Q: What sequence folds into this?
């Protein structure tokens, strides 16, 4: 077993385990004895962190856990701006909550002014109780007066907007590292050859003597059948001429070809790892993954910037649609469960009679309609706007 770091090619002082596919993407396979802790720490705080941040909106919306069974849900997205201009926090699974602001209470003598934002009435009441205790005011009287003047405002959750920072150099270096890791996992002796010095240096430092980055976005041209539509997977293969290329697919759609190097003396090989993060399952060297057709790196290298931009937009849209379908399914399940709970029906129990079934159906219909109303209203506005004549073509219109 080599005792040198696979990327720095220096002696390993403190051995550190490296996931082939990062842990935050549910990768279960671990490379041991190929990285020094200092190198792993550099990756963890650098390019791996960049890739994690780039994919975090999707990971949080899907409540996608790490590879450790029973791990905590991903941390919420903080301060996401909504279409109404307000800031929101998005919890794992896509639960959007108003971002709280400090509750300030001002004594006006005969009245109390309350400023701030809270997720519910309880937060306001707790703040009032603390204020009343501190000022010597009658707590029950203050809370009662506030409750009498308080109305609960229920509004649909607005659209929230995320920044996607996936298509940049730090993320590309992390993507290349995934392919390198799989090669090193199966044959560290091969990866340590000088044939892979260029990709090793680029992953480690971002420096390259080649004409461009060794990672290029590619379309998925085959039937991406597998565990789910949101799998992460990696494959490394060698061509008859000895060129070694990697394929890295994130969330079942973002696909990248990686030019690892040229090693003519190596025997042909193909290796793969596929992870269904949501179901916590994985498979290694599956025939469908090994035979999956993909555009060669040389062809991807010829793609123009405009074609790259269009392909990136198509893949991003496709992932958003997949995530939204998951979100809709989860929302419907939660809505139905909430309606059961409101009727006092416990899990596993059935509705008692026709009256309860009718009440349940009414409750589900009202809840789903309320949830869909923002989309219905937006679609109506878009249809109305589309039906208006173009002012430039309207002979009756006047310019300002």
A:
């Amino acid at each position: 077993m080599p005792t040198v770091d696979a990327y720095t090619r220096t002696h390993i002082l403190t051995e550190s385990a490296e996931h082939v596919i990062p842990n935050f993407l549910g990768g279960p396979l671990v490379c041991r004895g190929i990285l020094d802790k200092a190198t792993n720490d550099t990756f963890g705080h650098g390019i791996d962190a960049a890739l994690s941040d780039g994919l975090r909106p999707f990971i949080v919306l899907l409540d996608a856990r790490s590879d450790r069974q029973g791990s905590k849900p991903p941390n919420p997205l903080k301060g996401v701006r909504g279409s109404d201009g307000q800031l929101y926090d998005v919890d794992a699974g896509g639960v959007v909550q108003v971002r709280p602001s400090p509750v300030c209470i001002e004594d006006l003598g005969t009245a109390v002014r309350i400023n701030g934002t809270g997720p519910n009435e309880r937060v306001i009441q707790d703040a009032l109780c603390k204020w009343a205790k501190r000022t010597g005011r009658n707590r029950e009287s203050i809370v009662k007066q506030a409750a009498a003047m308080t109305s609960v405002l229920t509004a649909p959750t607005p659209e929230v907007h995320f920044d996607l920072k996936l298509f940049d150099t730090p993320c590309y270096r992390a993507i290349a590292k995934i392919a390198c890791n799989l090669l090193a996992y199966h044959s560290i002796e091969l990866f340590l050859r000088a044939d892979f010095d260029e990709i090793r240096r680029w992953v480690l430092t971002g420096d390259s003597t080649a004409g461009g980055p060794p990672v290029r976005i590619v379309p998925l041209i085959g039937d991406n059948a597998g565990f789910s539509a949101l799998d992460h997977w990696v494959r490394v293969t060698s061509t008859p001429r000895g060129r070694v290329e990697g394929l890295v697919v994130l969330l079942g759609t973002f696909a990248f070809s990686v030019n690892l190097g040229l090693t003519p003396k190596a025997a042909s090989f193909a290796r793969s790892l596929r992870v269904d993060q949501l179901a916590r399952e994985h498979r290694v060297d599956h025939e469908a993954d090994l035979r999956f057709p993909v555009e060669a790196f040389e062809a991807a290298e010829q793609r123009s910037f405009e074609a790259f931009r269009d392909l990136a937009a198509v893949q991003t849209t496709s992932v958003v649609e997949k995530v939204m379908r998951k979100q809709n399914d989860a929302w419907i399940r939660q809505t139905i469960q909430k309606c059961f709970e409101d009727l006092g029906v416990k899990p596993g129990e059935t509705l008692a009679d026709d009256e309860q079934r009718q009440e349940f159906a009414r409750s589900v219909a009202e809840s789903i309609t309320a949830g869909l109303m923002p989309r219905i209203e937006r679609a109506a506005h878009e249809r109305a706007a589309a039906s208006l004549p173009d002012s430039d073509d309207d002979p009756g219109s006047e310019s300002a």
Notes: Confidence is low (pLDDT under 50) at residues 151-156, 393-400. The radius of gyration is 28 Å.
